[in-house]
Every structure is written in structure tokens, then in C-alpha cells.
Design brief:
The structure holds 2 protein chains of 2 kinds. Chain A is of the alpha/beta class. Chain A has helices at 10-22, 33-42, 59-70, 88-96, 109-121, 139-146, 151-178, 181-195, 201-215, 219-250, and strands at residues 2-6, 26-30, 47-51, 79-83, 101-104. Chain A is built from 10 helices and 5 strands; from the N terminus they run E-H-E-H-E-H-E-H-E-H-H-H-H-H-H. In chain A, helix 8 (181-195) packs antiparallel against helix 9 (201-215) and helix 9 (201-215) packs antiparallel against helix 10. By secondary structure, chain B is α/β, with parallel strands linked by helices. Chain B has 9 helices and 11 strands. Chain B has helices at 11-23, 34-43, 60-67, 85-93, 106-118, 146-154, 163-184, 234-242, 250-257; strands spanning 3-7, 27-31, 48-52, 75-80, 98-101, 127-132, 135-141, 192-199, 203-209, 260-263, 269-275. Classes of the chains: A alpha/beta, B alpha/beta.
């Protein structure tokens, strides 16, 4: 079975995923609810184990989000709550919020196994689909997350990025024409660092590749990658400008 | 109020780091290259420097070299997206306090800064015995904060292992280092644990030698590794009775997360192996 496990305690994560592996399951383990939702975007799991109390997003919130998304789909995930709150009332509450099963902590491997066999015996609810590449996240939401939700700081950073990046790209073109490899590598490195704030994965990869090619003084290779990088940067800048304009006109 | 100098050529990064630190109540100055940072450091005393590696004029590593010619050297945290083993080793040799990976995030940044500032200057430094890509050997003081510091260097070394495997190995390493510092060194910063990282074509090996007298398995009822097969949580009651923090799964997990875990006879040296 392919299982997603979300628990903020390292020990629980490591112990449970190891036990699941020994039972022949494949496990992806994450430390909070947000990462669990992201993993579910990328991949399909036959069972999802969610700790009730986790930072960022708790188990109940994740369960609600999953059930909410499923309204448009035919597949339904098998959700198991892991909780320290073990009264019948707690179990009822968790089942009502969308969980299929509840395991009180500390739980034995046998009880985990029993719950999982329920799912294995049930008719296939979730159609496994092949893992796809991660859809691009909203760059501003990603940045906000990085700065702990400080929107004023995020805005200042976006402004600085919008101001500096076109200059850097222009300098990069010039340096490449001069075959000034050190400057190309150094600018590629700076851009790699800056786009990291916006989760611009493609741009980051191109910048890394360009940095490597500059070290090898590869002109045709660098020329080609600069073009691809320019395209990615243009997309990101347009996206961020839209945000900056929208914010300043609404302010 | 602690004084922090943020050195990075990227304005977006400077804004982020200084913005977050100011909001957390620190006094912050910024520098956009190594030369400016050096000038600032010669003028004023800083408690901590956050340092980028790739910068124009004088880069981070160059600045480290120049700094050690000065009388007073503040704590230095390197922040970079460049995790080549060479950069890590240069940072280690430059007596860098800790390594932060870019892109940064608020939580990690603030935790690292707080950790760096709260470590007493009396805690002896991490001593570098060997620092090349295949053999890193350190003498680390028995003090809690060194665990995340040592890990920030060793786990970013280029091992060729996939991230999830590395995370597991890292977990096992952290458990064993915690044990060595806590049980072997009794959290006495004047005692040291010898930490070795050895990378060959076929394996990755960590060895930890603690300054304690070792332990006996039969004394380890508070550890999950001694639990009977049918009761994997038995040690929890034992720990509660002994007034220990919840946990005790470390050794059991470590054993399961790597390929080999071998103790010497006294149990004050341990070797952890992951085959590549």
C-alpha cells in the first residue's frame, strides 16, 4: 500500500514509517499538514495517516481540505487520525470531520495493521494515478510563508526583486557577450538565490545550469540557457508585477 | 540588544533577513559586499554576522580569512545556496558557527540566530582535526547547541545519497550525537566528543567517540531497543517511572534507519554505516 504519514514528532514519523515499511508498505512521511496537502497534490495514496495536532495545519483541517477537494473527484482517500485525545467523544468528533478511522496514541502496530487491512479489503476507492510533476505554487503565497506571513516585508522584497532582476539579466547578457565567465557565474548565482524566495523552480534550475556552464566557459550552452532563463524570469516578473500593481491600487 | 551584521549582495535577501531580525527585536546593520562588512566590523562590535559566500569585491570566505587577523571575532553564520563540500569545509576551517541553507525561511533563520546568540562565548570552539571531502573529523564540546551546528555541516556534504535516505541517516546521526553529548559527556562543554565522517566509494560512515565510560544494555530499560517484541511501547512506562522526558526510541530507530550500527565493548564508541 502507498501511505502518507503526517506527524510533527520526528520519532513517531521515523518509527511508524519504518514499521509500515517492514509490513511491506511504501510510506511518504511529512512533518505538518501543509506538506501533507502538497504531497497529496503530487501523488495518490491508498491511506493517509494524520496527526491531529500539528503545526501549520492540523489533522482536522487537512482532512476537511481533502474532503473539500474530493467533491469534484470520484476518488476518496482513506483517512486515519492519530490522536492523543482518546475518548469516544473525540473519536466521534474526528469521524464527523471526515476521518474514516481513529487511532489513539500510543497505538500498537497490531491496531494500525487492523485499520489498514480494513482499507485493503474495501473496494478500491482511490484510483492511483501516476505521480506528476509539482504544479507551480503561487510565488507570493510561497514568499509570505517564508517570511512568516509579514505582508509588508514581502512587498518590500518583491519591489527589490522587481528593481534588481531586470538589471541583473541585462548585465548577464553583456557579460556573456564579453565572455566574462566569472561575472556570468556570479550573476547566475545571485539570481538562483533570489528566485528561491518565489519557488520558481525552473528559473532556479536554469540559473544553476548556467552557473555550471560558465565555470566550463561553454558559450553556446550558456547562450541557450540564458534565453530559457530570460523566459522564466519574464514570467515570474509579470506575475509579481500583477501582484504589486493590484496591491498598490487596492491600497 | 544584540547587534547583528547582515552581509549579502542581494538586496531582496538583505531586506528579508534584516526585516525579520528587526521585527524580532535585534539591532541590525547591513553590508552589500565583504569589504563593506569588514569596514563595519572594524568600526563596531557585532555579536553575530550572517554572511553570504558569493559576493563581489571580497567574498564571504575571503572575509573569514581577514576576520581572523582581528582581535575580536564575532560568531558567524554562513548562509548560502551553494552546498558544495568545498564551501562547507572552508566554512568549517574558517570557524563558522553554523551553516544556513538558502532559500531562507523565517522560522529557521530566527531559531538559528537565537541559538547562536544564546550559546555562551565560554563554550570551547569546535576543533577541526581533518577537513577534506572524504574525511572530516571534529572535536565537539558536550553542549546541546552543537548538535544542530555539526549537522548543518555534515549533512550538507556531497554524499550522493537521495534526500529521503539522507534524512534518515541524519536522524540516526543526531540521535547518537545527542546520546554521546548527554550520556557520555554529561552536557559538560569542557568534555569533547570526537565526530568523524568518512566517505568512500561504497559507504558513508560516521563514528562517534564520547568521553564517558560507556553503558551496559541491561541498564537500558528506559530505551525502546530493549522492549519485548509484543510490547513496542513498554519503555514509555519505564521512562515515566524514572521521570525521564518522553522518547527513548533513538537507539532502536537509529538501528533501523542505517545499514550497520556497531558499538565497541564499553559502548562509548559507535560506528554508523550507510552503504552507497
Amino acid at each position: 500500500m502507498r501511505i502518507l504519514l503526517a506527524d510533527d514528532q520526528n520519532e513517531v514519523r521515523a518509527l511508524v514509517s519504518r514499521q509500515l515499511e517492514l509490513m511491506g508498505h511504501r510510506t511518504v512521511a511529512v512533518a505538518n499538514g501543509r506538506d501533507a496537502l502538497e504531497a497529496l497534490e503530487r501523488d495518490t495514496f491508498e491511506a493517509v495517516l494524520l496527526d491531529e495536532e500539528m503545526p501549520v495545519l492540523g489533522g482536522v483541517q487537512v482532512a476537511c481540505a481533502i474532503r473539500d477537494r474530493e467533491q469534484k473527484l470520484t476518488a476518496r482517500a482513506f483517512l486515519i487520525a492519530l490522536t492523543g485525545n482518546t475518548t469516544d467523544r473525540d473519536a466521534q468528533r474526528l469521524l464527523a470531520s471526515g476521518f474514516d478511522a481513529v487511532l489513539g496514541k500510543p497505538f500498537s502496530i497490531a491496531s494500525l495493521n487492523a485499520v489498514l487491512s480494513r482499507q485493503a479489503a474495501a473496494p478500491q476507492r482511490a484510483k492511483p494515478r501516476s505521480p506528476k510533476s509539482r504544479p507551480a505554487r503561487d510565488p507570493v503565497a510561497y514568499l509570505l510563508d517564508r517570511v512568516g506571513g509579514d505582508s509588508k516585508l514581502a512587498k518590500q522584497m518583491i519591489r527589490a526583486f522587481l528593481r534588481d532582476t531586470p538589471k541583473r539579466m541585462a548585465e548577464m547578457r553583456k557579460a556573456l557577450r564579453r565572455k566574462d565567465w566569472q561575472t556570468v557565474a556570479s550573476l547566475a548565482h545571485s539570481i538562483k538565490g533570489a528566485v528561491g524566495f518565489f519557488d520558481a523552480e525552473m528559473a532556479r534550475d536554469y540559473a544553476q545550469e548556467l552557473q555550471d556552464l560558465a565555470h566550463q566557459a561553454d558559450f553556446p550552452g550558456s547562450d541557450r540557457i540564458v534565453m530559457l532563463l530570460e523566459e522564466e524570469i519574464a514570467k515570474l516578473l509579470a506575475n509579481l508585477r500583477r501582484y504589486a500593481n493590484k496591491r498598490s491600487s487596492s491600497a | 540588544m544584540p547587534n547583528i551584521l547582515v552581509t549579502d549582495d542581494d538586496a531582496t535577501t538583505r531586506l528579508m533577513v534584516s526585516g525579520l531580525l528587526k521585527k524580532a527585536g535585534y539591532s541590525v546593520a547591513t553590508a552589500s559586499d565583504g569589504m563593506k562588512a569588514l569596514q563595519a566590523l572594524q568600526k563596531r562590535r557585532f555579536d553575530l554576522v550572517l554572511l553570504d559566500i558569493w559576493m563581489p569585491k571580497l567574498n564571504g570566505l575571503g572575509l573569514l580569512g581577514r576576520l581572523h587577523e582581528e582581535k575580536y571575532v564575532p560568531k558567524i553564520v554562513v548562509m548560502t545556496s551553494d552546498h558544495t563540500s568545498d564551501t562547507l569545509l572552508d566554512a568549517l576551517r574558517g570557524r563558522v558557527y553554523q551553516f544556513l541553507t538558502k532559500p531562507l525561511d523565517a522560522t529557521t533563520l530566527l531559531a538559528t540566530v537565537e541559538n547562536a546568540l544564546s550559546t555562551s562565548p565560554e563554550v570551547p570552539a569546535i576543533e577541526v582535526i581533518s577537513a577534506n571531502a572524504t574525511w572530516v573529523e571534529l572535536m565537539v564540546p558536550c553542549e546541546r547547541s552543537v548538535v544542530s551546528r555539526v549537522q548543518s555541516f555534515l549533512l550538507h556534504m556531497d554524499t550522493g545519497l537521495p534526500d529521503d535516505v539522507l534524512e534518515r541517516v541524519g536522524y540516526a546521526f543526531r540521535e547518537l550525537l545527542n546520546n554521546a553529548i548527554e550520556w557520555g559527556g554529561h552536557l559538560d562543554p569542557n568534555l569533547k566528543v570526537r565526530v568523524s565522517y568518512i566517505r568512500t566509494k561504497k559507504l558513508l560512515m560516521y563514528r562517534l567517540d564520547d568521553p564517558g565510560s560507556g553503558f551496559k544494555w541491561e541498564e537500558m530499560k528506559h530505551a525502546a531497543i530493549n522492549n519485548p517484541k509484543d510490547n513496542p511501547m513498554a519503555h514509555m512506562q519505564q521512562r515515566e517511572a524514572l521521570g525521564l522526558r518522553p522518547g527513548g526510541l533513538g537507539l532502536l530507530l537509529s538501528q533501523q534507519l542505517v545499514d550497520e550500527l556497531v558499538f565497541n565493548e564499553a559502548h562509548n564508541s559507535v560506528v554508523l554505516i550507510k552503504y552507497l
